[in-house]
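Worked example 3. Consider a protein that binds S-adenosylmethionine.
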Amino acid sequence: MKRKQRTPTFSLPNSADKKYYVQHMFDTIAPRYQIMNTIITFGLDRYWRKKALSKLVIPENSLILDLASGPGELADLLGSRGHRMISLDISREMLLANRRNKTPKVQADCELLPFPEETFDTLVSAFGMRNFPDLSRAFAEVSRVVKPGGSVFFMDISQPRAVVFRSIHKFYFNNIVPLLGAVLSSKSAYKYLPESIAYLPSQYEIIKLLEQHNIENVSHTSYTFDTVQAFIGVRSRKHL
Ligand SMILES: C[S@@+](CC[C@H](N)C(=O)[O-])C[C@H]1O[C@@H](n2cnc3c(N)ncnc32)[C@H](O)[C@@H]1O
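Given these inputs, the predicted complex is written out as structure tokens:
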């Protein structure tokens, strides 16, 4: 059955406040970020990254930007396959959280990427999107720095569509995760998590927005009862 497409309504907050709040929050939770991820996803986060990336076709020895890289899990995975990686994140502490990761690191904002046009063969980003204050600005920058014909990969958390799973998911993120955060890391940071999930537009709105920024042939895949989603598209060959 064809799903009815909703008209996009982008009432996304576009405030410098959100940017600095998010940066500070990730700086604070950075030392325990990876272990918290493992705990709250029951170790599934690594599986999701691998599984979603397996759908991405990347030419050998590509130059790839890991946008909102955090400690660089995607950079690790793709770097081990011989690609040339650059990690970029707004939070210095997140970039430095994994000392073993030797990928070149750049501290910058996704809305102002410090690279010339058409620099990268591919751009990947995991679990960053919902933190960006203005998805449109971020996608405009993505489109600018990726070469025509290059692939663009985004993945993030999503909300299950089935009512029962949606309720369980909501209860888990609103109640259990902040509790785990309070004990093991930071309560306020892990209270922010459900808010950030709710902030993300629907898959149709995200696809539409990517297309508006010259990212074509966008596919969408859901994993584990729709709790995680991935988008793969191709930077149009049109020059901007
Ligand atoms: C949930 S973490 C994801 C980290 C990593 N990619 C992963 O797969 O675990 C989100 C990351 O997005 C970064 N981030 C948030 N807003 C950003 C922005 N405006 N520009 C660049 N990075 C940003 C945060 O600092 C954080 O490291």
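Take a moment to read the result before moving on. The two ends are 36 Å apart (CA to CA). The chain has nine helices and seven strands.
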